[in-house]
Specification:
globular, four-stranded antiparallel beta sheet, disordered C terminus, 129 residues, 6 strands, two-stranded antiparallel sheet
Length: 129
């Protein structure tokens, strides 16, 4: 299977009103992606999936800090709130630098300088690999 593309996204449980039936607890941090629930409850993942996709591939919402989305579980009785956060290249490099024996990947600027320019077809931009 191919490695996950885009940015890494973390989901942090911020608060729970009641008891989460899936067992999530305040402070839980899950590394989620478009294809990996990381153990997140199916109902919550279903609600969060569009925001996870958006953050993973570089999008933002205008009413929140860049790279952050806060949302609630669809269970109104046991309301759980999570914060989805895009982990940027800087954070990933810092984590890699802390891990012994792990090489730091090239920054996005370095990768774009090495790559060939994209091919443009009208308004559609395609990267030829």
């Amino acid at each position: 299977m191919n490695a996950e593309r885009g940015h890494r996204v973390t989901a942090t449980v911020k608060c729970i009103k009641g008891v989460c039936n899936a067992g999530h607890k305040v402070g839980d941090v899950l590394n989620v992606s478009a294809r990996d629930t990381a153990g997140m409850c199916g109902y919550l993942y279903h609600a969060a999936h569009p925001a996870i996709l958006m953050l993973q591939f570089g999008g933002n919402v205008p009413w929140q800090e860049s790279g952050v989305v806060e949302l609630n579980c669809p269970d109104p009785v046991n309301l759980l709130s999570i914060e989805l956060k895009r982990v940027g290249d800087e954070d990933q490099q810092a984590e890699a630098a802390e891990a012994p024996g792990v090489a730091v990947a090239a920054t996005q600027e370095e990768r774009s300088e090495q790559a060939e320019p994209p091919v443009r077809f009208g308004q559609i931009v395609c990267k030829v690999e």
